From TrEMBL:
It comes from the Bacteria. Residues 64-95 form the HTH cro/C1-type domain. GO terms for molecular function: DNA binding. This is Putative zinc finger/helix-turn-helix protein, YgiT family protein. Gene3D superfamilies: lambda repressor-like DNA-binding domains. It holds the Pfam family SocA_Panacea. SUPFAM superfamilies: lambda repressor-like DNA-binding domains.
Length: 321
């Protein structure tokens, strides 16, 4: 059967509401009737869902993922604490439209950590010890952030008292972090969080090696997959909240990648030189290979889990630029 594709309008019924969508559909060349095309039809349905969400001010899949990550919970753990059910959480994160009641509930626990904490207390016995500890640690961080003024929230939370060998003798530079992330995300398609963490590490430590000061002022810790910025999940959640970065699902649905349209024009010549060298050295690495490389570094082999990493290790980097 010969077919062709053209734009057309169709009405979809979404939760008892008719939603008209203009999208591309496939047609039979002989009868000019619409025929099934999984990809095009799925795209049209997603448009209908998006229109319905906007009309009814419903929470988006990305917002749900960010709320879950804000509380350091897996889909299963988030479902247990909220009582929504794992299948519902998975469907919502994959694009299904939540009920208005569930949307309101999810928005409320985003802005009301105290309610989430109460739900956790009710259901914590259904969670393993490690999950409980991670949640309580995150709640402690969120309370600390909440006690700060809005304007100084990011800077104050991530700053040390003074420049030292754990921040590369530079206080946390909010704008530099955004600029570096934007620089990399605009040059590396589908940049995963794991790879981003390693690029930040190698950028800061290489810059420190060449200039005796870090680029961003970030502190790094020893984590399972290699060095990562301290409190990185909170950092990324706040950057999302402020519209500086966005996490999007990979086409295969496995994991997420970062995007950013923030300006990086204020990066200096020296900073861009190091960024380009890091980009060239690790461009072809994926999350697994760059993590493996970071595991070779003394900065990782000579530190323990969650231990802060001194910038003094910069001189001993195997993969410095």
């Amino acid at each position: 059967m010969e077919t062709y594709v053209k734009k057309d309008k169709e009405i979809f019924l979404v939760r008892d509401e008719n939603i008209e969508v203009e999208s591309e559909f496939r047609f039979d060349s002989l009868t000019h009737e619409k025929v099934f095309d999984e990809e095009l039809d799925d795209r049209a349905i997603k448009k209908a869902f998006e229109i319905y969400r906007k009309r009814n001010d419903l929470i988006t899949p990305e917002e749900i993922r960010n709320i879950r990550k804000m509380y350091a919970l897996s889909q299963r753990a988030f479902a247990i604490v909220t009582g929504l059910g794992k299948s519902s959480i998975i469907r919502y994160e994959n694009g299904a439209v939540p009920t208005k009641m569930n949307s309101y509930f999810l928005k409320d626990i985003k802005s009301n950590p105290q309610r989430m904490e109460k739900l956790f207390e009710i259901n914590k016995d259904l969670l393993d010890q490690k999950t409980q500890e991670k949640f309580l640690e995150r709640m402690s961080e969120l309370k600390e952030i909440d006690s700060l003024s809005e304007m100084n929230k990011l800077v104050s939370f991530f700053n040390d008292d003074s420049p030292n060998d754990y921040n590369g003798y530079k206080l946390f530079d909010y704008m530099k972090v955004i600029q570096v992330i934007s620089y990399f995300s605009n040059r590396i398609p589908f940049l995963s969080k794991t790879k981003l963490n390693k690029l930040l590490f190698y950028t800061d430590f290489s810059y420190f090696y060449n200039h005796v000061v870090s680029l961003t002022g970030l502190t790094y810790i020893h984590d399972h997959f290699g060095p990562v910025p301290k409190k990185s999940e909170v950092l990324y959640a706040l950057l999302v909240e402020n519209g500086m970065i966005e996490w999007k699902p990979f086409p295969n649905g496995q994991g997420e990648y970062v995007t950013s349209f923030a300006s990086y024009e204020e990066l200096t010549v020296d900073e861009i030189e190091v960024l380009n060298k890091v980009l060239e050295k690790f461009r072809d690495d994926n999350a697994i290979t760059i993590s493996a490389k970071s595991h070779e570094e003394k900065a990782w082999t000579e530190t323990q889990i969650k231990e802060k990493i001194s910038y003094e290790y910069a001189s001993e980097l195997i993969y410095k630029v």
